Amino acid sequence: MNEQEPDHIQLIQFTSEGHPISRDVQFDGSEFKSIVNSSRDSYGSGGVSEVACSGISKSETDERIDYQLEGCENKKVVELLVIWK
């Protein structure tokens, strides 16, 4: 993402039972918003949660690449995506 252009992506993760959990990541040009929808996961919390974050980071090791949201309201790092090499 260009740091100044608004954009969005949707990531879908499947539970071990095959239920989808979606994460929408929206960028308005200055802030990221992560919206997790687990309403179709009958074994999970089944809700929708939202958190705003100030930045995104990428870290790489020999084994994987991690993308994370940082500077979030809840003081946590939100893991978006792990790509195994």
Automatic annotation (TrEMBL):
InterPro entries hit by this protein: DUF4362
Protein's name in the database: DUF4362 domain-containing protein
Organism of this sequence: Planomicrobium okeanokoites (Planococcus okeanokoites)
Organism ancestry: Bacteria, Bacillati, Bacillota, Bacilli, Bacillales
